[in-house]
Amino acid sequence: MTMPRGHANTRRASRAYGCTGSAANMLNGPTERTHQVAAALDGEAPAAHRGWHQWSGHGAGQWYLREEHFGEAGVTAHYWDSQGIPTLAAVTVHGRTRPQVDLDGIRLIGRTVSEVDAEVIQYIEDRDLGWLVYCDGGPGPEELNMYVRATRAGDTVVSGARLFAPDWKDHG
Q: Using CB atoms within 10 A as the burial measure, which of 17, 18, 55, 132 is most buried?
């Protein structure tokens, strides 16, 4: 996956989001292409798979992989299937587990969200970059295809980040 640009706040009405499934019943489930995140995480198996069933007119049709959560590493891999094959489109780094990601020296993960937002916005303005506020309210430089996210950590909220491909449609 490259970390280029883009965002969207759209949802296709023909798809039911949030259905859960397991690798055993996924017709379009984990493939060689979806195992790239597990390989990057030293073989960690995903703790959960999420996806959706395509409506077939008489009931649920084929199950499509949408995301895999890697609990030990604290990341979620997001997939899309533009050509019928789940392809890695984004990675969310969750703030409560604190794998660290930096943006030119700005620690993005596990901090007070407003402090990280302010530093990222200053970074963007100092470099005269375009910036966007994404569907869940987090700011990010348009050119870098990443943004700051708030992650609940018990009774507090800490910063996380999402890195994504340019043509991925972000649903929050």
A: 132
The alpha carbon of residue 3 and the mean position of all alpha carbons in its chain are separated, in whole angstroms, by 12
Sign of CA dihedral 110, 114, 118, 124: positive
Encoded amino acid at 79, one letter: Y
Give the helix ranges, DSSP H, for the chain: 36-40, 113-126
Q: Read off φ and ψ for residue 150, nearest 5 degrees.
A: -95, 135
What digits encode the pLDDT tens for the residues 26-63? 444 455 555 778 888 888 888 988 887 776 666 667 77
**Half-sphere exposure of residue 138, counting CA atoms within 13 Å on the CB side?**
27
Single-letter residue type at 43: G
Phi, psi of 127 (to 5 degrees): -100, 5
Tokens for 33, please give them.
């292409």
Query: What 3-state class would DSSP assign to 115?
Result: helix
Query: 81 exposed, middle or buried (CB, 10 Å; 0-12, 13-18, 19+)?
Result: middle
3-state SS, residue 82:
coil
Distance of alpha carbon 92 from alpha carbon 149, whole angstroms: 9
Side-chain half-sphere exposure of 151, counting CA atoms within 13 A: 23
Q: Could you tell me whether strands 139-141 and 106-107 are parallel, antiparallel, or unpaired per DSSP bridges?
A: unpaired
